[in-house]
Amino acid sequence: MANLLLEWIGLPSRVLRAALDRTELTRVAEPLDNLIRVEPEGEGPCWLLLEVMAEWKTGYEKTVRDHWENARRARKPALPVVLVLRKGHGRTTMRAQESLESSALGVTVEIFRFYVVKLWEISADDLAEHGPAIALPFVPFAGNASETTVRASFERLSRKADASRNDLLMALAVNSSRVFPTLDGSVTIPPEIRMKSPFLDQIVAERTAALLAEATLEAKRDMVARWMRARCGPRKAAPLIASLRTASDAKLSRATQLLESVKDDDALLAALKKLLPARRSHAR
Question: What is the DSSP code string of 42-102?
Answer without folding.
Answer: TS--EEEEEEEESS--TTHHHHHHHHHHHHHHTT--EEEEEEE---TTS-----SEEEEEE
